[in-house]
Structure formats: C-alpha cells, structure tokens
Amino acid sequence: MDSTLAYIDQGSFLGLRALGRGPLAQYGWIYEHPVDVDALRRFHYNLGHGLLGRRVERSPLPFGRDRWVTWTGPTDVDISATIRPRGEAMAWLDEQLRVPIDPEKGPSWRLAMQPLDTGGAVITLVASHTVCDGLALTQAINQAASGQTWDLGYPQPGARTRAQALRQDAAAILRAIPDFANAVVAAVRLARNNLGELSSSAGRSAPAPASLGGARSVTVPAVVSYIDEGQWRERMESLGGTSNSLFAGIGAKLGQTLGRVDDRGLVRLQFPVSERTEGDTRANALTGMTLIIDPADVTSSLRDVRAELKRSLSALSEARFELLGPVALAPLIPAALARRLEGMALGAGAPVGCSNLGRLEPPVNRPDGTDAECIVVRQIESKTPAELLDRLGGTLFLASGQVNGKVSLSVSAWRPGGPNSKDQLKTTVAQVLHEFGLTPTIE
C-alpha cells in the first residue's frame, strides 16, 4: 500500500497547519436506554483497525509529500465519571469539539461517552477532516459497527530512517514534475475563468494563527432537528422534488433568512460530491459542485431546485477539472499564500455549505450494537475566533442523514456582527422547516 498522501489530503493537512484550525467531522448518538460498554469498546477497537487507523508523518523535505503511518487510536473510550442531565446532551457534544484533535500529533480521532441521568448516554466520534471526509467516516463507522476491520498496510511511525526518507521523498518530487506542470495549467485556467470572484474574495484572507493571540474563540451555534421520514417523503413528493432537492431547498431558504444572498437575492449552495470507490483509502475522495438557487418559491415548488441539481451534476466533469486540477501544487504552497487562498476558496458572496449523506446503513446508528434513539451528523470548526468568523463573512452549514425512520438535519450558523445564539438559531430553523410544512423535533 502506497502510504503517500493524495494531493487533496496533502492540501487539507497543509491548510490545517497554515491556518491553525480545520474542519472536524462529528457523529453523535443519543441513547435513551443503557449502553453496552463492552460492545462500545469493541467498536472503538475496530475503528482503530480501519480507515481511521492512521495519522500523518511529515516528510523531512520542505516541499516533500507527507505520508500515512499506522495509529490505532486512543487506548480506550473516554467515558465520563460524572452523570449529566439529558437536556445537556447537545451542550456536551459541543464541548467535545473543543477537545484537541490533531492528524499528525494525535489524537486524529477520539470516541467519548457521557452517561445521562435518564439511564441512557450520549456518545460521540470526532475526527479531523484531514483523516476522513464525511463519507469516509460513515464507511468507517459502518464497518466497525458491523465487526469488520481493515488492515491498510501502513508502516509504523518512524519506520524510515532520515536518509531513507530524504532519498525516497526527493525521488517522489522528481516523479511529480509532470503533475506540477499540469496543475499550473489548471490553476491559470481557474484564475482566468474566475477572475471576478477571486478579486472580490481576496480581501478575506486569514491572518497567521500567532497574530490572533488571545482572541476570543467560539464554537459556532448549532442545532439538530429530527423529522419523521414519512413526512419528509410526503413533502418532497408534493413539492415535485427529491430528498436531495428538499434538503437543498431548506438550505436556500435558511440562506435567505440569515442574509446569505447575493445582490440578486440568490443563494449559492456548495455541495461536496463523493468520488469514493471500492477500496479507496483517500481521506478526502471528493469534488464539489455549486448551485445557484432562487429561494423565493422553494417552499411551494422544488422543480427549479431539482432542475438546477440535474444541471450541476451533468456539468460535474468540467467543474471537477477546474476544482481539482491545481491540487498537485499543494506541497509547494507556503503557509502565507495558503491563508490568502482561504477567502478565495470560500468563493464570492456568502455560500451555504451542504452535505447530505442520504440514507445511512443501519449499523451506522449502532455503535454499541443497538439502535440509538437519535443521531447527530455534522461538520464544524471549533475554537475559531469570532473576529475571524466575521472577517470571513460568517458561515452556514447543513448536514443530513436518514436512519431509523428519522431524517436528522444539523444546522450551524454564524452571522457577522451577530446576533449569534443557539436559541435564535433554533427559532430560525423551526420557522423555515414549518414553512416547508415539516414538523421537527429540535434537540
């Protein structure tokens, strides 16, 4: 097994180091009944012997490609010795995002459990996006909960001597010269085709992490809603849509309500599109597509949203080349330039991030072998200074998955300058879902 990071994973890791922060993928399970701790520990073991069982080891060369080494995770599940009220389940999930995660120094992922005063518990799995994208994490959970392990064949940390590493990584750089040349061509084309957007977003570059000093860090407010799967299906069909277009319509309406529109009143939705294949070991096997949606009529018809989804998917091959063509340059990008590129990568205006995992396999909801009553799926950055969130134009991200007869919809949002509170976001999400004729239970 080649342990060299794929170019997109290299870019993710170098971006994390340049910015001093990065996205985390989180699953949460809320149990209203006692958890089988022994089964949970077996799940934890299996996670460490699958797609999550690795961390990054750096190349000794400044522009060398980094490599994966085996790492089976923390020694045990982090089980709290105290009991907390059931009503604090979401607050605890937020707190777990603030526990350090590092794909190089470790832990690159962690599993934790908080007993609740009702006799149940809340469990969470948090992982660095450098180690796994949303679908990779879902696949790892599905395999671990099904009792499967996967030997990736990566070397132990420090297996190469410095001389071996220098020699091998220098040879890899020489072999990659054609990739660099093709990436330069793609980068020039990308810049030429998006000159206006690059100019308008260039001013949103992030400062060096050290310059933020003691700036107040925040966790972006987030809520999760549960909708009966039958009601979800009835509404999508009555509005002439699909599950994905209903999800996109909700994203567009939330974007409008929270002021994330362009000067024409349109909302820009950014969707990851998985390219994961059988046996794929890339951490981030994905590309992306952008939808431009008019939110004015999405609560009465999803036909235009469905058509825009179809159009974007048909144009995906061209968009993929434009998006991923330059990624081979990732090892060559200095940290200062990476910080400048962040604002450009966000795109012009105020995009809305969307990740719909669709129908999940039943084991994904069974970390202890039994069905959790509630599941939480989200991607979020933690410990980000409020000043930086404001400078980058705020954020709005939606994630969704369907399992055990429910649609789980997580929404995280930050409005530049505020107000920003979980109660306000809860009210906004409830209002938008009611406009779609949906009756949610909000955790």
From TrEMBL:
Domain of life according to the entry: Bacteria
InterPro entries (alphabetical): CAT-like_dom_sf
Protein name: Diacylglycerol O-acyltransferase
